[in-house]
Design a protein that fits this description.
With 442 residues, this protein is an alpha/beta fold. It is built from 19 helices and 14 strands. β13, α19 and β14 form a beta-alpha-beta unit. It is elongated. Bound molecules: uridine-5'-diphosphate-glucuronic acid (UGA).
Length: 442
């Protein structure tokens, strides 16, 4: 085997490249962003993802991994090429396939110059039909070669969660192969069989269409599960004695439901759920299907972060001129990613109400500054952020915030009051020492 290449070095692509290199596969990692490539060549990962920095440094040091903008070199030095470019939203919510088109055209023209069979694997999240009706014709027209005989094409969705991307790449719970033809599926199946060895996960081989759709279904189901429990949380807030945590625990014991993704909070964010749900709804709308369940899950999520603002008002009255600390602006712990983070929605809601906002996040301060600029103050620690504050809203469940005690708040705040947007505190310990409100608790 010549090696593998990965095109598009976001968190999925870079993690995949580093993991392939770690398992001894010669890997060419390609991106068009020169600034990012410069950082990567120096061993610096441009975002925070646990373990990735060390793996990148190691891969480069032992020369298992090369970072380049040269697609031709990547095609020449590999027999399998994973496409992990971004698929952002258009303003109307539909999927923007510009990067997929550019990558397909680029790869096609390098396939033209490269002899031998090559396998192209679409790992970006793309709407059903994209691989067969867009990628395949572009690859064929730019390479002058035939899909199925001269090169193979598969869809292979990823299910990595940020913050756990390395573990998820090394130990996926399943592998989905959507094959344009059997030879391509066999080739990708053998690639993964040798990558995972004895620990080969369950494998599902199917059509590209099913693979593309099931990736959206997966994210939509998880997001719906969270919106479901958040709806119940809102109901619990109206019923003295009810607690959504207990409700979630109870229903999670039913094996048909399961305990995961039932943590009520300020809603889901990130680079995947919001964009994928929008793309799926838009895709379905064009086919004449409304997907009401998924649309409702989205709607519930739009308002969920603002519940924290209402809770703060309930605790301390009008927020005008009040100092509110927001803990957490990453969309979840163990990442510095602030894309569509609930904390940001909370902050904008507080600013609209005239509050003065102080922000702290263990990893996402730089990204927060890029979005919020001078609109808020930035603290250097959680304790500094609550010093003299009138209210504190926990928007992300970082471990560091769990360690704060009710006394920490009571001692430092002007009006000791806490809105627990992620259910990290024991209400019994907090209610006696500070004004306290929590999602899903009356
Ligand atoms: C998600 C999926 O979990 C991955 O399987 C998928 O591969 C990825 O999108 C993608 O499409 O690339 P990710 O966006 O990294 O991964 O984050 P999750 O861990 O799924 O969390 C998403 C959001 O849901 C976060 O804001 C999190 O705080 C929230 N969440 C999650 C809850 O509010 N409650 C829960 O119980 C679980």
């Amino acid at each position: 085997m010549r090696g593998a290449s990965v095109v598009g070095l976001g968190y999925v692509g870079l993690t995949m490249a580093a993991c392939l290199a770690d398992r001894g596969i010669k890997t060419t990692a390609v991106d068009i962003d020169k600034e990012k490539l410069d950082m990567l060549r120096r061993g610096i990962v441009p975002f925070y993802e646990p373990h990735l920095q060390e793996m990148l440094a190691k891969g480069l040091a032992v020369k298992a991994m090369v970072v380049t903008d040269n697609l031709e070199e990547a095609t020449r030095n590999s027999d399998v090429m994973f496409v992990t470019v971004g698929t952002p939203s258009n303003p109307d919510g539909s999927i923007n396939l510009d990067q997929v088109k550019a990558a397909s055209t680029g790869i096609g023209s390098t396939l033209k110059k490269t002899p031998g069979y090559h396998l192209v694997v679409i790992r970006s999240t793309v709407t059903p039909g994209t691989t067969e009706h867009l990628v395949k014709p572009l690859l064929e027209s730019t390479s002058g070669k035939s899909c199925g005989s001269d090169f193979g094409l598969c869809v292979n969705p990823e299910f990595l969660a940020e913050g756990l991307a390395v573990h998820g790449t090394m130990n996926p719970d399943r592998i989905i192969i959507g094959e344009c033809d059997k030879d391509a599926g066999d080739a990708l199946g053998s690639f993964y069989a040798s990558f995972h060895g004895q620990r080969m996960p369950s494998l599902l081989r199917t059509t590209p269409m099913n693979s593309e759709l099931l990736k959206y279904a997966n994210n939509a189901f998880l997001a719906t599960k969270v919106s479901f429990i958040n709806s119940l949380a809102s109901l619990c807030e109206q019923i003295p004695g009810a607690d959504v945590e207990v409700v979630a625990k109870g229903i999670g014991l039913d094996p048909r439901i399961g305990p995961l993704f039932l943590r009520a909070g300020l809603g889901w964010g990130g680079s995947c759920f919001p964009k994928d749900l929008r793309a799926l709804v838009e895709f379905a709308r064009a086919k004449g299907e409304g997907l009401p369940v998924i649309r409702s899950a989205y709607d519930v999520n739009e308002f969920q972060p603002l519940r924290a603002v209402r809770m703060a008002e309930h605790l301390i009255g009008s927020l005008r001129g009040k100092r509110v600390a927001v803990l957490g602006v990453s969309f979840k712990p163990e990442t510095d990613d602030t894309r569509e983070a609930s904390g940001l929605v909370v902050i904008h809601g507080l600013l609209r109400e005239g509050a003065e906002v102080t922000v702290y996040d263990p990893k996402a301060m730089q990204n927060a500054r890029a979005v919020l600029g001078e609109k808020v103050r930035y603290a250097r620690s959680a304790l500094e952020s609550i010093e003299g504050a009138d209210c504190c809203i926990v928007a992300t469940e970082w471990e560091e915030f769990r360690k704060l005690t009710a006394e920490d708040y009571a001692k430092r705040m002007r009006i000791p009051s806490v809105v627990d947007g992620r259910r990290i505190y024991d209400p019994n310990l907090f209610k006696s020492k500070v004004r306290f409100a929590a999602i899903g608790l009356a």
